[in-house]
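Listing 4. Sequential folding, example run.
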Amino acid sequence: MPVIDVTTDTDALSLTITAEFSAPVERVWQIYADPRQLEKIWGPPTFPATFVEHDFTPGGRATYYMTSPEGEKFGGWWEFVTIDPTSSFSFRDGFADTDLNPVDSMPVSVNTYTFSSTDNGTRAVYKSSYTSADELQKVLDMGVVEGASGAINQIDALLAA
């Protein structure tokens, strides 16, 4: 399994997941740059994602929905803040309604994903920061650790394909 560490820091209001992949940084980066590849790994395994919009540039937006096994759709949005090709990107991440409009009553995180070369491939560090302990706890209670870990663990199969 790619996920090697999960750390919740309630003082820093953050969640950090570290993973390692047996592929070069450029190949792992391509998954996030290409919405069709991203759809294959974003979200838990039983909730496939569909990216409607994916403007992978600073100031760009992404909108998507995940579909449950029962056919329910759960939307989300990203606003890209920084992009340093193949090494890192940061974005605001929030929940969306069925029309993919932001839901203001739900938590918004600031995420930074960093990628570095290792002797065996790539180390990825996924850090999500929240504005309050209540927001962090809300997503923890919703199963963000299990969902994100399950999503990240799907990357190996995509890399092997």
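-- end of first protein; second protein begins --
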Amino acid sequence: MEYISTRGKIDSVGFIDAILMGLADDGGLLVPRHIPALSADTLKKWETLSYSELALEIFSLYIDGEIPREDLKKLVDDSYATFRDPEVTPVRRINDRLHVLELFHGPTFAFKDIALQFLGNLYSYVSRKNNSIIHILGATSGDTGASAIEGVRGKEGIRICILHPHQKVSKVQELQMTTVDDANVLNLSVHGTFDNCQRIIKELFADVSFKHKYHLRAINSINIARILAQTVYYFYAYFQLARKGETRTINFSVPTGNFGDIFAGYLAKRMGLPIGKLILATNENNILERFVKEGIYEPGEFRGTYSPSMDIQVASNFERYLYYLSGEDASAVSGLMSGFKAEGKIVIPADKLQQVQADFVAYGVHNDECLATIGTYYDDTNYLLDPHTACGVAATDKLAGDGEVTVALSTAHPAKFDESIQLVGITQTYPAQIEALFDKPQHQTIVDGTNEAIAEQVVKFYEAEA
């Protein structure tokens, strides 16, 4: 499989070069040259596979022999052996029309573990095979950082630097990152928002000479391996319901801020998974909702919410969707992104908006509605939703039709966001792994939110290895 840039200004690369490149050297995002099309027979054969077996089949389509199958199988098996549930991503029935896909059974209790356990092992594999240096640089709105650190901490040949917005993640998210004291980990707490952190990361990666000099690799969802790993659980959730005899149309409701998780669902649907609606759930930072409803992509005023991992105004994966919306016309995407940089917004014509609305429906959940959803479902079903999952469930209640069943993606364990849960008047018990964090010392460096301040810390950290 070859990978190309959404902006079309680099030569195609193979899978390993794609995951090492992260952000394409022309500033675009990497996508597969073609999306594999799956037959109904293939889907039927896959229905009985375990999670790891299914992941192996899907990864094989996109890696196309570049990693020997036995090596790939070991990477997959090792990655998902760390999960607490034997199903890896179990589906829980809430009522006749709603199921929850629990994506929080990995080491850090967040859906990011599913991709980052694999990507961490993959980076380690490449480092050993190529005798190469892997310097990971990433930004997080909360969960990516902890998952990425957990995926590579202590691994030879790899160092990781993670930026998070200072005092704008939950306490548990902060502790999961900053209580790690491994020599190959640096946490930078950045004055500003996640959008500031993400912009700095993308601009440092866009400086190709800096990127190559310091062997920078991406862990954020700009890395195509992240997206591919996330497509697996859409298939697996669908198959879990199919094995139970579910024949109704199946929707997926996805809480999203960076557009990566729902883009993985879009990719699964294009591969042939018979998904009904893709419900895009946002919070009050609702740039993506407005795009789906009006065809206007324009950052608004940042709002701090009870679902902080979605407090994002500029979605880093949005460009991948624009590529397919533009008929895979890289020059059109380049024009749109240049216009966005110059004018701060993208406006699409009516015919393109019709396509967007065929691909997605969207709903922005306000803070009070988020908390009310947590309380209502806890009272009615005794199931505790984290605030991000609550946004997905609230969107389901608004947008799912009669006779349909919806799988809402549960992106994190509620213990990671106890500040929000307490506002509903619910007392929860922390898992032991999370409870233990509160007694550990923290290790982080607080820095200004400028390219220069971050670059200085990055250079100091990575050069210290030499």
